[in-house]
Specification:
Helices cover 38% and strands 17% of the residues. The protein is of the alpha/beta class. The strands form 4 sheets. The protein has a 7-stranded mixed beta sheet with strand order 3-2-1-4-11-6-12, sandwiched between helices. A two-stranded antiparallel sheet has the order 5-13. Strands 7-8 form a two-stranded antiparallel ribbon. α1 packs antiparallel against α2.
Amino acid sequence: MNQEIRIKAKPFYAVLVILAFLIIYSISSNRDCGDEEQIKAALEQSLNREAFHLNQKGPTIYAITPTYARPVQKAELTRLSHVIRLVPNVFWVIVEDAENTSQLVSKLLKKSGLNERSVQLSAKTPTNFKLQGKDPNWSKPRGVEQRNKALEWVRKHLAENGGREKHSVIYFMDDDNTYSTDLFAEISKIERNKVGVWPVGLVGGLMVEKPVLNRDGIVLGFNSEWRPERPFPLDMAGFAISSDLILDNPQAQFSYEVERGYQESEILRHLTIVHEMQPLANKCTEVLVWHTRTEVPKLDAEKVLQKAGKRSDVGLEV
């Protein structure tokens, strides 16, 4: 079946290449040199991504997703699973904030066909660091225990399966964000011993937070407006790490002891400096991930039912 798909994909890709050159030729006489170069670059970027999806090649991307039980959990993970199914080189590391793994997540992985490309872990957040009642979601660090558990698993897994011999990438893929499949074609370009960076939409009070590059394509800093004094003022969705760096720096992890907004800086300070980060997404000019959040559902009527000893979801998994 896979061979049949590859055979069919080759002529399709060839058609794309021919069309690209025809388009460039047809518009070259009506464009100046600058416009033509931009068009060529855009077409090359598009073709590279299409080739990635058709050839299904690239380093394994370990996508780490902390999650916890809540009314929208299944909806969030279902949306994420649909993206991951479309990107064959993603291996999903799901870590639940619980003593044990849940049937809900197990069944979701099985139904989505991702059992062979995933691992289901659990790591419970200590009570004193757990959000309580009406605590704002920013008042305590979240996902620390789960991301560290995932890093522990990845390090052990890599050590048992070739270690540095096989290039792979680690990405922290929260379940409430929105991801383009094109992002993973970009992540696959991350070189050994590098941290890749790109823009993130709808975060930090801005339409987009992004790396700022100089004329040579070197990262100078970030356009962050929220706590720009941070060593790495970027969002968790805006970077991924070569596995070499994770293996060589076992002290690189997250911490409960850092200030709000410093989790990204806490791990990155062990791995790289700003000027050595690898800019992606067409020199950081494209937004391929958005920091979206699902609205907390209004369940007042459900609470009334529960007080009466009833539920609307009896016999259903929502």
